Amino acid sequence: MVHWMKSLRFHRFGDLSNLEIMDLPIPTPAPGEVLVRVLASAINPSDAKNILGKMEGTTLPRTPGRDFAGVVELAPSHLAGKYVYGCGGDIGFTRDGSHAEYIVVPERGIASMPSNLSMTEAATLGVNFVTAYSGVVEAAGLQRGEVIVISGATGGVGTASMQLARFIGATIITIGRTPPGKEWIERNGVSLALSTSQDDIAERVREFTGGAGADVAMDCVGGEVFEICLSTLGQLGRQIVMTSVGPRRASFDLLDFYHRRLLLRGIDSRALDTVACAVMLDKLRTSFESGDLRTPRIAKTYRLEEAREAYGKVIDGSAGGKIVFDLA
Q1: Are residues 53 and 16 in the same domain?
Q2: pLDDT band at 319, cuts 50/70/90?
C-alpha cells in the first residue's frame, strides 16, 4: 500500500510560479538511511536562489529545503523516535530536501536536537551555524583573545559568527552599511561597530588594535567589502570568504598581501553533506542547551500551502528574521 505526503516541488528554474505543492509517495530509506518526519523546516536564501536557477548542480525535478527538525520514524531501533535536526549541501539540490512532510537522509546525517529548543527553533540553526562554524572555528581557527572582523553581521551567518566568536572569547568588530543601534551592539557583545558609509574602516581598526590589526576577518558579504576586510588584517591575518554579493571579482595589492603574510580561505556550505553537517551540529548542541548560543529570531511560520508567499519574503528580504514551515 502506498502512503503519501505533501511536498513542495519544482520541475524547472525561473520564478516562484514554478514552485508547487504535490502529493508524492513517502520515500523508503535504503540500508544506512533513515526516514525523518519533518516537523519544521526553515527557508534559506540559497533555497530561494535554487528555484530561481541561481545555484549550480541542481538536478530536476526536486524538492527544495536544506534545514530540518523532526522525529525519526523508520530506522534502526536505537534511532527510532529520536528528535533530530540537520542540514546539508546535498539535500534540496541532488537529493530531495526538507520542504516536505518526510525526508530520507543517511543515518549519520542526523544530530540529536538540543533538548531545550522547539522544533521551529531547531529548524533555523543548520545552514547558518554550520557555515559560521566552518569559517570561524575550522577554517580560521579563531582563538580566545584574538580580534575578529565580521562583515554582514546582521545576516544569518554573520549573527551566528558573532555568537561563536563571543563564545570563544574573541574581540568582535563588525562592518555594515549603516551604524547599528546601541542595544544591538550590547546584545551581541560587539566591541566596535563600523559603517562603510561613515568610517575609514582600516584606520579605525588599526587605532582600536594599537596598530596591530585584526587576526581574522569573516567576510559574509564579499564583493566591494572583500578588500575592506582584507585591509583590516595584521601580520599573519586570516580572511574567510563564504559568498560574494554584487561583484564576483575583487582586486588587492599582492605585495601588501604577502608582506603581511596573509591567509585567504574560501568556504562553501554546499560542499558539506548531511553527515558533515551533523558532526558540527552535534558539537554545537550543548552550547545551545547551556544558553551560550542563541537561536535566530523567527519572523513568521507558514504552511507548505503558503510556500510562494513565504519564499517571496526571503527573496525580497522583508522578513526581518527566519521564515519557517511549521509541519507539526
Answers
A1: yes
A2: confident
- State the Cα–Cα distance between residues 22 and 68, nearest whole angstrom: 19
Each residue of 60-119: pLDDT tens digit? 999 999 999 999 999 988 999 999 999 999 999 999 999 999 999 999 999 999 999 999
For residue 25, the domain's CATH number is: 3.90.180.10
> Between the CA atoms of 41, 42, 44 and 46, what dihedral angle is there, to the nearest 10 degrees?
10
The DSSP letter of residue 173 is: E
Residue numbers of the domain that contains 245: 136-268
* Confidence band of 318 (pLDDT split at 50, 70, 90): confident
**Angle at alpha carbon of residue 181, lines to 177 and 184, rounded to 5°:** 100
Query: From CA 75, how far away is CA 175, in angstroms rounded?
Result: 46
H/E element holding 149? strand 147-151
Instruction: Clarify whether residues 9 and 76 are in a common domain.
Output: yes
- 233, part of any domain: yes
CB atoms within 10 A of CB 83: 17
Condensed to tens digits (0 to 9), the pLDDT of residues 199-224 reads 999 999 999 999 999 999 999 999 99
Do 319 and 252 fall within a single domain?
A: no
- 70 and 171 fall within a common domain: no
3-state helix, strand, coil in the chain (%, to 5): 30, 30, 40
The answer to whether 191 touches 172, Cβ cutoff 8 Å, is: yes
**Residue 214 resides in a domain:** yes
66 within 8 A of 91, measured Cβ to Cβ: yes
Nearest alpha-carbon partner for 94 in 56, 125, 124:
56
- How many independent structural domains does the chain possess? 2
